[in-house]
Amino acid sequence: MRGGAERGGAAQSGQSTAGGAAWLALFTSLGTLICCALPILLVTLGLGAAVASLVSAAPFLVWLTKHKVWVFGFSLAMLLLSGWLLRRGSRQCPSDPALAAACVRARRWNLRIWRAAVAIWGIGFFAAYLLLPLRRLLEG
Fold first, then answer.
1. pLDDT, average across residues 100-113
2. Looking at CB atoms within 10 Å, which of 1, 50, 107, 112 has the fewest?
3. What pTM value is reported for the model?
């Protein structure tokens, strides 16, 4: 009986590791939106004064923007790590039906969070690196 409980605990700890990595990936990918996509969107909408007041209220945005290569690199590394952990760690669920159902629900939510983080990272990458060259290409 104890061996089954230990296996269930191991599966749950794998889920929590993957879930924690998925949440961390989500927050790091949100950093890409804050540093790059939000200011670009506000300036595009003609709200440059809002960007100026945002930067004066939160001066760390300037640092994030200056180091956007590191922000995007770190968030991509977190996305890859969390994707690997989700793929590797979630193959085992406990044999107890209630724990197995909770394990499956946790896996689904972790995958949803990870997919949202990937989408957010993609939007930030597009805004930071591809939007201006595409605009220049289409105007020229």
1. 88
2. 1
3. 0.73
